[in-house]
Amino acid sequence: MNTYPKQWRFMRGIAIVMLAVTALFTLASGLGTSCVAINPTGFGPSMAPLARYQWLYGLFVVITTLLGVIGGVAVVQLIRGRRGAYRLALIALGGGVVIGVIHMLVSRALRGKSMPVDVVVYITLLTLAVFLVLGGRKWRGMFEPQGTPPTDSGGPLLAALTLIIGGVLTLNLPHLMAATHTWNGINWAASFPPLTLGMGLGQIAMGLSMLGWRVLRQLRDKRLLTEGRVSTVSSS
């Protein structure tokens, strides 16, 4: 049976959860930039200088959102043990660093600061470093095993934990982003509470359902194994 070593499963799980968190923040950054891309003069004098480069911020929205989606797809593919998933993750992370740094430099030049893009870039850099280290020669096969994909890669459990963590972060995004998204006393990060609440609770519900299903299956398998042993002893 083709399996992952236990220590590999742990490190692989941490890396994939980090990628999921990075993808979520990248997606939120892309969607969040749409406010100033559409109406840069509507958020006070600090954002008004961006109006001259409204087209560029539109590109930031499209590219950053797309990279967030690619990162999410890479998470799913990594959990399933699909070939090409590691490369897809590097594309999302590498692209996120490049576009994020450009976004930071432009914002600092135009308005003197670039938060919260800075945080997203730092998170992306950290995740990229982890993937480069774990994807090196020493750990070859952790993300894309040679031959038959492992049967005990922990996919369902990892997917459940990723969904739960993503849901918690989604619910807290309005609070996490409040300091950098509040203008004239309005927290624009909390502009769509039904959407944020629905997405956050939906992810948590799906994650808990997957955990519950996994526990039920383990209990069933244990019961069948016990019954099999009992019947074997009785027949002998």
TrEMBL record:
<feature type="transmembrane region" description="Helical">
    <location>
        <begin position="197"/>
        <end position="216"/>
    </location>
</feature>
<feature type="transmembrane region" description="Helical">
    <location>
        <begin position="54"/>
        <end position="76"/>
    </location>
</feature>
<keyword id="KW-0812">Transmembrane</keyword>
<feature type="transmembrane region" description="Helical">
    <location>
        <begin position="157"/>
        <end position="177"/>
    </location>
</feature>
<keyword id="KW-0472">Membrane</keyword>
<keyword id="KW-1133">Transmembrane helix</keyword>
<protein>
    <recommendedName>
        <fullName>DUF4386 family protein</fullName>
    </recommendedName>
</protein>
<feature type="transmembrane region" description="Helical">
    <location>
        <begin position="88"/>
        <end position="107"/>
    </location>
</feature>
<feature type="transmembrane region" description="Helical">
    <location>
        <begin position="119"/>
        <end position="136"/>
    </location>
</feature>
